[in-house]
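## tool: complex_structure
## caller: assistant
## args:
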Amino acid sequence: MIPELGHFALALAVALAFAQGVIGIFAPGLRDPRAMRAAPALALSHFLAIGAAFLGLIYAGVVSDFTVENVADFSSSAVPLIYRISGTWGNHDGSMVLWCFILSLCGATVAAFGQNLPASLRARVLGVLGLVSGGFLLFTLTVSDPFTRIWPPPLDGAGVNPILQDPGLAFHPPVLYTGYVGFSVAFAFAIAALIEGRIDAAWGRWVRPWALLSWCFLTSGIALGSWWSYYTLGWGGYWFWDPVENAALLPWLTGTALLHCAIVVEKREALKAWTVLLAIATFSLSLSGTFLVRSGILNSVHSFAAAPDQGLFILGLLGLTIGGSLLLFAIRAPVLAASGIYAPLSRESALVLNNIFLCSIAAVVFIGTLYPPFANLLFGIQLSVGAPFFNQTVLPLTAPLIFAMAIGPLMPWKRAALAPALQRLWLAAGAALIVFLAATAERHVIAALGLAGGIWVVIGALTDVAERIRLFRIPLGASVARLFVLPRAAVGATLGHIGFGVMVLGIAGMTLATQKVIVLTPGQSTELGGYSWTLNDIHDAPGPNYSQRVADLTVSKNGQPFLTLHPSRRFFTAQKVVTNDAAIHTNGFQDIYAVFADEPAGSHGAELRLNRHPMAPEIWFGGLIMALGGGISLSDRRLRVGAPSRNKKPEGAVA
Amino acid sequence: MRAPKKRRLYLLLACGVCLSAATGLSLAAFSSTLTYFLSPASVIAKNPAPGMSFRLGGIVQVGTVATTIDAGTPTTSFRVTDGQASIPVTFTGVLPDLFREGQGVVAIGSMTTAGNFSADEVLAKHGASYMPKDVEQALEKAGKWNPKYGPPPAAATWNTMQVKSTSSS
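## result:
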């Protein structure tokens, strides 16, 4: 019964979403205030309907209702509760419902908290969101229905893919999807502004928090995914330049650009058309990221299996959304005149430069990701573009970005000079130079460049704060007091830059990683990375829905054992799958990582892969700091209080 | 020059420099890093030069996976087949969790002078279906399986589907 109710709620949501779309977009043109007020109400009920459908699906998973095909295929009664819930979105059909649920949540949030928006703008924004949501809900309902029943039901489900039975998977998709989908709000604001034909600082003040919020989620989602692959796949890698990963990186790059140029719109009312274009591009890339992979166009190790008719439907939706919005942009963009004027050397120009760099990086990643399917389609050859391509193109383009990243925030608005900014960076430059020389002395040029770049960005960002609180120029207590009254947006921006620098440090450190694959019998030891690794024992151990073999390793330095590791091999009997559970020990600046890969026949020992990863944790710490910076920036006073005129006349806000 | 005009000039200049750098880098990287996908039959046909990196895809032939240990370093060897030819592969490292005999696999590496494929990386699919798309197309081309006519044949039959005309090395 519950799945039928869920199915009905889904159908209801389609109707409500399209109603929201049509009424929201056309009501302002008809100047009908009652119709305009209907849009938020529809957005809320549309959210409730999808929420009901989503809950119905989760319920079917939790009670293990195997008459529902989705549950029978991707869950089983032996699976722990949390994975029965997360299994709901661990497959294609269920993840579509989650996607639409988050989209409607965004719409409901705009409806609930947008009372101070001009009524026509709010109706149009909700209308755009409603149309997008309606399209994808229709897709879910017609060709990717998660509530399909099967008869006769199997005695037990096929179970969740063992690799996906991991806390990382429980949180990674919802967080990543929230990031992707959150950009729909910036997109809807962009489209609404194109229809209205005007953009002002108030518009920027609305778009920026949404872009920032989605960016935080996207950053955390990517970091979580990277961390998940690092510890579950047992390859010791954190980024493989796989199409799915690139698909998440692309909106992150343009989203980061959007974040920066929305500041210019808000503060200086310049770069309007460009901001609108970036908002459209970011959401388009989010959509493509989610769906190109599913439509089977991009060939990836991560992709869900999808039927061809699903692919066509999705392609149609993508074409309509992206093509339609770009067409609208082409027609209406000339209306958006810029009013702010700035010199070639200024904060504005620095932000423009940031945008150019980020978009160039996005362009090469885009080309590298999409060239193989096009080559296959046009020339019929099968080829792949792998990590070497991206390393050769992205790294040289990132270098100037890193260089400029420390200088930009030190430039004043409107008109600046390079010399004072550079003068203030002597400390960062000196530290970077020392690190570079120290690391080149050990003949690691790439690592040296990366470490120097990371140090440069981190110290550069700290210099900016030190300047603002007048550190060492006024008494320390006064400086600390100033630190606490700094605008939160400035603190957030600094943290964002520091986080990026820390991540660069981590990536550079990982180029120095050492690894070794070896077979050890109990009692034998081997040397790697200055440590001695001894295999003590291999034994069986029980698990909830698997059996496992565990290897006991002792790691010692200078003869002193300081660590025991227990990597294991897990045998999932239901799926006949073996997984490796890596043992990772971290001290914050280095990971010691061991994988129990196999027990080769006749060797009476364990095949182990031992890794030493200097600075690896910094990659995810960096991501976390970036997301945290975004969060702090979101709590800035001007976004809460100074938001579009609350007490003034409504038309004042858009004028 | 008036300020806005000058500004636009700088902007265009910056865009131009970045774009041309991006294009140049992409083209240079394309020419040196593109890796082709070959099925065992096309490896036999095209005979790629030793050391040239490519992706080899097919099915892990049942009963061919073996591990030898040389001074503590394990080397896994197996054969990859598309039903027409099969290529011996050697790999040192941790095989993916989903690597199994009779399942689709993609290996990245190059041929050695001895006629082995030495893999640097071995990928097995970890999604809902276990058949990499490249492999699926290769099998379809080899006339062994067309996805239109149902699921792939049982894994155990792959190694008996050997040999059409090629003498598999």
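## assistant note: The longest strand of chain A covers residues 531-542. The CA atoms of residues 223 and 620 of chain A lie 6 Å apart. Handing back to user.
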